Amino acid sequence: MIPGLALAMCVSMPAAAFAEQSPTFAYSAEEWATLRDNNLDFNEIDKLIHEYNPTVLKNAISYSDFIGKTSTDIAESYYDAAEKIYNAMSYPDEESPAFASGVTAYLNSEIQYENLREQGDNNTNDQETYRLNYAKEEATLAKQAKLLMINYWSSLANLQTYKNNIETAQANLDQAARKVAAGTATESSRITAEQSLTTAQTALKTAETGISSTKEELCLMLGWDYGADVNIGALPEVTAEQVAAIDLAADIVKAKANNYSLLSTTRQLSNAQTSSVRETLTNTKATSEQNIASNVADLYTTLNRAVTELNAAEDTLKVQATNLAAAERKKAAGTMTEKDYNSAALAYSSAETAVQVKKYAVLTAYVNYEAAVGGLAAT
Description:
Elements: H1 3-8, H2 29-36, E1 39-40, H3 45-52, H4 54-63, H5 71-88, H6 99-122, H7 127-182, H8 187-221, E2 231-232, H9 240-244, H10 248-258, H11 260-271, H12 275-333, H13 338-376
Parallel strand pairs: 1-2
């Protein structure tokens, strides 16, 4: 976390007027107060998505139409719609000036009728499959919000890299200007250095704009109004011990048991009325189980790789800390130039930033892995 930047965003403002999805008794008064304030904590994202995300709220309304509906009920709705179209169909009079367009309309209605009948015959959805589909979308949105919050902090950490680049470009420009003044370099070298400084400054501004956009997108996902002044809280850290404690085999079993798509396919299979649909769904289920296992294993590998890269970055930071300490002693003794000392300081700053960014990369990999085990593994 970058303390100065975090503190600058802590201005308190009245919370937006929220219309929660859950009844009052779903949470304690303290929990409701936390959800309704203008502070975003990483561990409350799931609840905020459930209570305030526009898509989730819209889905909750849509889902109410399917409560209590069996696959037969839904099939009948297709048949009823087809019947209405059929009853309204009439072949146009051949003598009519609108005969051609009338035939086109008739044929389109005929196609709609046949499609609706086919959808009714092949329907395997019921209340439970719709619930699973909406639950999957909610879980996906929660995962996306967590990744956005991580991206927000990672981008903030990377701002130091852009600032370091500006500092280096400024130093190069100053040096080029001195050489031009001394007659040991051409004006073109100074212009090139000046262009590099402008490029570095532009990159910083672009990064800052990106951070603002990420924050806005995150807050809108979680129910805040556009432009709301929200304090984005710090991120949790994932330890090497947490990763080492993972039981991949057990998690693959959990991932299959929790997978929204696989559960929906299994439910549809039990609802299937024709052999062709049953065969298709049986094949889909088998493929999904294989893909889930593969996806979770791949995400586990990615997580461990992220931990390894973090360890390497921490080792580099230790080296740069030693180098900086030595540079400080040399500078105090007058045996190191200001330029060389600044280079050592920048190297340490870059290594420090790299460690923080790698920590966020580990958290990103962990969120992706946990989401897969929780039901979102690719099928």
